[in-house]
Design brief:
This protein has seven helices and no strands. The chain is mainly alpha-helical and about 170 residues long. The termini are far apart.
């Protein structure tokens, strides 16, 4: 006989699996934007998916499933970087936007990579994953105003960094 909590646990697992499958490419792009390596990004997403499914019964608020999954993926990314601090090579980037020249893209990528992990996460979630500021605040477990001020500071750093490279 399935109890109410057993039913909830099963529905949490199903919901986590559905959200994972629906957003797998987004998680992969996020991981790839940190690692610049297809295999490492795939490993990060696989580990994050495993942890999410394993811990799905503990999800208290299913309406925050997407936020919870982003947090797991970011934690996996940060763990990966902690383990590999010494090596952070800038691999070749795919030409995603043909209207920019390759040097500009590489300069932007290098400037974003130079940001601290939390700031980099804010920029990537906002501009590459199209998350709202509220969603970013939930994912990173920060106050909305903190996210706004950090995003503004990050953009100023990037602007300063990129303009100094042109000189």
């Amino acid at each position: 006989m399935i109890t109410a909590t057993g039913s909830t646990r099963e529905s949490n697992v199903e919901q986590v699996e559905t959200v994972l499958l629906d957003n797998y490419d987004r998680y992969y792009r996020l991981a790839y934007s940190y690692t610049h390596n297809e295999q490492d990004a795939g490993d990060i997403v696989q580990n994050g998916a495993y942890k999410a499914i394993r811990n799905a019964p503990a999800l208290k608020s299913p309406e925050y499933c997407t936020t919870w999954l982003y947090r797991i993926m970011l934690n996996e990314i940060f763990d990966f970087h902690r383990k590999r601090r010494d090596s952070a090579p800038l691999n070749e980037m795919p030409a995603e936007r043909p209207e920019f020249n390759r040097e500009d893209i590489l300069d932007l990528r290098a400037a974003i990579d130079a940001l601290p992990h939390e700031e980099k996460a804010i920029v990537l979630l906002r501009f590459f994953e199209d998350c709202t500021l509220s969603e970013i605040a939930e994912i990173l477990e920060l106050n909305l105003n903190t996210v706004k001020s950090r995003l503004y500071r990050c953009l100023e750093k990037l602007k300063l960094d990129l303009s100094s490279e042109e000189i």
